[in-house]
């Protein structure tokens, strides 16, 4: 199987709690390579655009507020089967339901503050990598 790329975001509360190095370490230990990485702060406009599929859901406004509350770390991760394997490493959306050893179990505070984002399929991985990184940055 060939290499696959997926997008991850370390969410503001985890960046603020200085969990970035520990989470990046888990990516490497699970066999991912990081091909692009940066720290930025999302505006409400871009957070809303990123989470367009959740527009209108009752948690959407609070999600945008949380995602814009401080800097985030975004990265493109690469390995065979990257999309599925990252979702496994990240764990259930709700940290209370996440398996032991997953990133959300270890670093999540709540279903909203669940430490990281991971693309949920091939189409979204492509869209999300292009959302955050220019063509040059994705080379
Ligand atoms: P995932 O991030 O696991 O793919 P979703 O795409 O369903 O989950 O949701 C996107 C993000 O919205 C979640 O990571 C979480 O931060 C937030 N979220 C999802 N469901 C809820 C909820 N019921 N209450 C509050 N926030 C939620």
Which key phrases capture this entry?
7 helices; 139 residues; 4 strands; 40% helix
Characterize the structure shown.
The protein has 139 residues and is α+β, with helices and mostly antiparallel strands. The protein has a single domain (4-137), classed as Nucleoside diphosphate kinase-like domain (Alpha-Beta Plaits, 2-Layer Sandwich), CATH 3.30.70. The protein is built from seven helices and four strands. The chain has helices spanning 12-16, 20-29, 44-50, 60-67, 82-90, 103-107, 122-132; strands at residues 3-10, 33-40, 72-80, 116-118. It has a four-stranded antiparallel β-sheet with strand order 2-3-1-4, with helices on both faces. The model has no long low-confidence stretch (mean pLDDT 97). The site of adenosine-5'-diphosphate (ADP) has 8 residues, from loops.
Predict the CATH topology.
Alpha-Beta Plaits
Which segments are poorly predicted (pLDDT under 50) over 5 or more consecutive residues?
A: none
Number of alpha- plus pi-helical segments: 7
Count the domains: 1
- What is the architecture at the second tier of CATH? 2-Layer Sandwich
Percent helix: 25-40%
Ligand identities: adenosine-5'-diphosphate
CATH superfamily: Nucleoside diphosphate kinase-like domain
Largest sheet: 4 strands, antiparallel
CATH class: Alpha Beta
Mean pLDDT: 97
Q: In percent, how much strand structure appears in the residues? A: 15-25%
Radius of gyration: 14 Å
